[in-house]
Amino acid sequence: MGSAPVRFLGVVGCGAMGRGIAQVAAQAGIGVRLLDARPGGAAEARNAIASALERLAAKGKVAPADAAASAGRLAMCAGLPELAGCDVVVEAIVEDLEAKRALLRELEPIVGEHCVLATNTSSLSVTAMAAGLSRPGRLAGFHFFNPVPVMKVVEVVAGLLTEPAVVDGLVALAGRMGHVAVRAKDTPGFIVNHAGRGFGTEGLRILAEGVTDVAGLDRILRDTAGFKLGPGELMDLTGLDVSHPVMESIYHQYYEEPRYRPQPLTRQMVAAGLLGRKAGRGFYAYADGVAAREPEPAAPAARPEAVWVSRARPDLGDRVASLVRALGGRLDERAAPAAASLCLVTPLGEDATAVAVREGLDPARTVALDAVFDLSLRRVAMTTPATATAMRQAAHGLLGADGVPVSIIRDSAGLVTQRVVATIVNIACDIAQQRIATPGDIDRAVVLGLGYPHGPLSWGDRVGPRRVLEILEGMLRLSGDPRYRPSPWLRRRAQLGASLLTPED
């Protein structure tokens, strides 16, 4: 690509992604040449982009003259030879490796020797695509997200043979087009789809264990962690016919890495046609696009006679004791709980049963509370299999005394939010460990591409690397599942007291 600015950009494939890329390029002052295999496809794309620009002008988001100038930069092509003068050509055709390779092989001798070839693939190997080219170094991934004008991140993916100058040039081009470019190695899922594996797969694992139902899972992760949608809501929006194959693909591409293991539930739902919102039914039933939801039950009137709070982790114990006082509960401050006291414990990566046994507590009176995450919008309490109904009701009544909703879940190693967030952080740590991307680019990509409330490495710092490590070690010990084994990146920084964003030279 060199240091010369890009004057003309070709876009092959004029679906939603191709149109979005063409629009932001034209708005950046670049001449765009549109080509689509379907007769009339390029003309439809040009008209659709022009209409989108007119709507932006009508809303005052761009000047009318700028919208007209951008539309004027769009030209339709009848065939590949008309792309000969482009500085960059982006293919955005069907997500099929052989189709993309065939297009690139046909395109390569047409464009000039300094023209960069880019693929908007979300899941295919850039290296495999480049293998059929005479100059594989000129091909890189240029992965935008839909809708392109709104999602301001693009992954610039270097295949094994991609020339560094090609990556640098695409990074600069993305910036010119108003996007944040993040650099990634050519690995399954790149950064965003790789980092997103923890949220859905761990949510499904929680459902598979019967810890809570899908509505409870979604409520907990929205209210305590700040996700915009819970796993069930997100998969219903995306469509299980899209999200389940991605889960399976990345799992198999990583040779059955347990961290990415899907669950049978979504495979069964796809077979049953329960694809989500577009099918009228998925994890939720929909009427006119609105999910039917059961109202949450109100907190019962029951209250415990007294509350004994575990001090095994003093900072968490202090937080819970302060909450009990604020809710009007009477604290049992003796070293061992009185016979009638509710016992509140604060596990990290463990279940309530393990804590009750280790601390010598009566499991019939023991309830766990997640004190790591936000308690202002929702409180999550977890019972042992032996917790008495009266104690569960009393705990629910007290914890919801100020009107804040309470989720009562079944025993689980790591509760809900702890295990989902720790899994997300751990996967991001392993992305950094594999040098797929820099720590800063991992966080930027996830916040912009997935809309998480924090970048996963920054989130790990907020929780505390040592605490995240303890959560994972507790889940690994209790479950025996290697999906929870801590990444070396996390373990070393936890041991050193260093930030998870600390890079390595």
- What is the CATH domain class of the largest domain? Alpha Beta
Q: What do the pLDDT scores average to?
A: 97
**Major β-sheet profile:** 8 strands, mixed
What proportion of the residues is helical, as a percent range? 40-55%
DSSP helical segment count? 20
Task: Describe the fold and architecture.
- This protein has 505 residues and is of the alpha/beta class.
- The protein contains 20 helices and 15 strands.
- It has four domains: 8-186, Rossmann fold, CATH 3.40.50; 194-290, N-(1-d-carboxylethyl)-l-norvaline Dehydrogenase, domain 2; 307-404; 417-496, N-(1-d-carboxylethyl)-l-norvaline Dehydrogenase, domain 2 (Orthogonal Bundle), CATH 1.10.1040.50.
- The strands form three sheets. It has an eight-stranded mixed sheet, with helices on both faces.
- The radius of gyration is 26 Å and the shape is elongated.
In short:
The protein is of the alpha/beta class and 505 residues long.
Topology of this structure?
Layout: E1 8-12, H1 16-27, E2 31-35, H2 41-58, H3 64-72, E3 74-76, E4 88-91, H4 97-107, E5 116-119, H5 126-130, E6 139-144, E7 153-158, H6 164-176, E8 180-185, H7 192-195, H8 197-208, H9 214-225, H10 231-238, H11 240-253, H12 264-271, E9 286-287, E10 290-291, E11 307-309, H13 314-326, E12 342-345, H14 352-358, E13 366-369, E14 379-383, H15 389-399, E15 406-409, H16 417-433, H17 439-450, H18 456-463, H19 465-479, H20 488-496
Parallel strand pairs: 1-2, 1-4, 2-3, 4-5, 5-6, 7-8, 11-12, 12-13, 14-15
Antiparallel strand pairs: 6-7, 9-10, 13-14
